[in-house]
Amino acid sequence: MLTNYSRIVVAYDHSDLSKKALKMAMNMAKEDQQIQLFVVMVMQPEKPIPYASGYGVVAILESQLEKANAVRNEIEQELKSLPNKTKALLLQGNPGLMIVDYVKQNDADLVVMGSRGLSGLKELFLGSVSHYVVQKAHCPVLIVK
Question: CATH homologous superfamily for 7-144?
Answer without folding.
Answer: HUPs (3.40.50.620)
